[in-house]
Structure of DUF465 domain-containing protein:
Amino acid sequence: MNREEAIRKLYEEDRKFREWKDKHDELDKDIAKLERHHPMTHDLKIEIEKLKKEKLYYKDLMEQKIQELMRGSG
């Protein structure tokens, strides 16, 4: 099973993984929207950093599940 297959399988079959991925994707869109804002304020930079950390948290959770599945099917 390759990485893309693992992600697809988890997204379809694992409710928690699907929630994490949807939240990660939503944060990605929010960050992109905020980064286009001009002028960039200090508060906005702090908000973007906060969202990036949250996005990374969800990425780490997803990566753990992906690796578990790929090890189990290897």
Remarks:
- The mean pLDDT is 96.
- The chain is about 85% helix and 0% strand.
- The chain has one domain: 3-73.
